[in-house]
Write a structure and sequence with these properties.
Length: 272
């Protein structure tokens, strides 16, 4: 059997574990959110830019193995809900970037930095067992100071139509709404998924300063392909996040590329 070689990023430095905090009942850890809390309403706990988590116990393992929760697609929501100490925080109100950082911290707290996984080579199809060092994952740099604090609104001028769109970062609740709308549309027609237009209708909150939802939905359906691609690329490039990518090299054909660590229920099991 081939030796599993840790995958690391050249020139990267290990990320220190989240700060440890102790109370009378159990140890907890405080992590820094990738969003720094910058775009949450300032009167909410998430605006502090930090999240306090308790370590997983056998109770959380019960959550992760619940077939009912897995089938409903809410197992990770319930996991976060159980481990976030500040109960005023609803995990569905969190941006995906902050949820990702929380999941990485939870995994590190429970089982350490080494995450054993297997990736199928996109070129030759060979499965590659590897060990990913979660301690080397850090928050991506982001120019927070160029945006007003407490306001989840961003401007972008579309290159083709020259329309000025105002868009927002999506929370888990928003993502669930998109999924629900897509499922409803699939019942009407299975030929077209409408995923791009449905997502655009949710992410855009104003068009040339006009917040009219009917006008936005109509524009999203008719948006030029060049504008749609440019907007989606812009949103992707300017969204704060934790860097979940790592350098991958196939042990069989030698192909090299960047891959992302998948986040699923198996992420929380040391042999999963």
């Amino acid at each position: 059997m081939s030796e599993i070689v840790p995958i690391t990023k050249p020139g990267s430095r290990p990320v220190p574990p989240p700060a440890m905090k102790q109370d009378n009942t159990f140890p907890s850890e405080v992590i820094s959110l990738p969003s720094k809390g910058w775009f949450y309403p300032e009167n909410t706990p998430l605006a502090t830019g930090q999240l306090e988590l308790k370590p997983m116990t056998a109770r959380e393992e019960d959550i992760l193995t619940s077939k009912n929760l897995i089938q409903k697609g809410v197992v990770l929501d319930k996991l976060l809900e159980s481990l976030i100490i500040e109960k005023a925080i609803n995990p569905n109100d969190m941006f995906n970037c902050d949820r990702n950082a929380a999941f990485v911290a939870i995994r590190r707290m429970a089982y350490g930095d080494d995450y054993k996984a297997s990736i199928s080579c996109p070129k030759c199809g060979v499965d590659n067992p590897l060990t990913i060092d979660l301690g080397k994952m850090d928050n991506k740099p982001f120019p927070f100071e160029t945006y007003p604090k407490g306001k989840n609104e961003f401007e972008f001028t579309l290159p083709v139509s020259k329309k000025a769109v105002t868009f927002r970062l999506l929370t888990k609740k928003d993502e669930d709404g998109i999924d629900a709308e897509l499922k409803a549309l699939q019942k009407v027609s299975t030929e077209v998924t409408s995923e791009i237009t449905t997502r655009l209708k949710s992410v855009i909150i104003a068009l040339d300063g006009n917040p009219d939802k009917v006008a936005i939905r109509r524009f999203a359906d008719e948006m030029r392909a060049g504008d749609s691609l440019a907007l989606r690329n812009h949103i992707r490039s300017m969204t704060p996040d934790i860097d979940m990518s790592f350098d991958f090299q196939c042990r069989s054909c030698g192909v090299e590329r960047r891959e992302d660590v998948p986040l699923g229920v198996s992420f929380f099991w040391p042999n999963g």
